[in-house]
Amino acid sequence: MQIEPLPKHRAAGEKSRLMKNDWSYAVPVSLDDFAARDWALLDSQRGPYSAAQRAKQALEMLAAQANAPTFGYQINNYEHCLQTATLVLQDGGGEEDIVVALFHDLGFVTNNENHGQFAASFLAPYVSDRNVWMLERHMYFQALHCATHPDVDPNIRERWRGHPDFEYTANWVAKYDVPSINPAMENARLKTFAPMVERLFATPRNDIPIPK
Ligand SMILES: [Fe+2]
Ligand SMILES: [Fe+2]
């Protein structure tokens, strides 16, 4: 495997051009050497940094897929995400549900095998438990709509029958996800959703559990 060289803008030992003049920087270059004052410095700047960067970087992660080729569907995954969010928007969905739709397949290409859990983890600090549950399982609920697939169990969702979010997830998949591979459908642009992403990402939950 080839290791990428350091970016041209910073050779080893040179100051990063990404250090901002109006910010302060911790001196130690290993976490082992950080003192309490260094953590206090970071904590004092984390809020404004997150406010400026979280939504921006999330949107850039999706935008990075805009020109990726589609591998068999008539639209690519980026358009599918826009189309799903557009359907929720047109259906009068709230901002959280629109943003959930926008990012539900963010990891469809890089993490196809567990892309529902990818999206659930990605959005967990910002959305309800119901949407986390739906995101984790949406690919399995989708199986019902792929009954002609030779390797898919269309009834795999039945293991969750009776869960309070079962019907919500089944409805979400049928109404917004399944039909959103249609090149004839007009999508809203990503910039339409950007202010919603910014608002949702402004207030992360602080009750994300530590893994067991
Ligand atoms: Fe999906
Ligand atoms: Fe999808």
SSE arrangement, N to C: HHHHHHH
Distance between the termini: 34 Å
Mean pLDDT: 95
CATH class of the domain at 77-201: Mainly Alpha
Bound molecules: fe (ii) ion
Give the structural class. mainly alpha
CATH topology description of the domain at 77-201? Hypothetical protein af1432
Rg, rounded, reads: 21 Å
Portion in helices:
40-55%
Number of strands: 0
Determine the number of helices (DSSP H or I, runs of at least 4 residues): 7
The coarse silhouette is: globular
Low-confidence segments, given as residue ranges, are none
Q: Report the sheet with the most strands, covering strand number, pairing sense and barrel closure.
A: none
Gross CATH architecture of the domain at 77-201: Orthogonal Bundle
Could you state the CATH homologous superfamily of the domain at 77-201?
Hypothetical protein af1432
List the SSEs and their pairings.
Layout: H1 36-63, H2 77-90, H3 95-103, H4 115-123, H5 129-141, H6 166-177, H7 190-201
Helix pairs in contact: 1-7, 2-3, 3-7, 4-5, 5-6
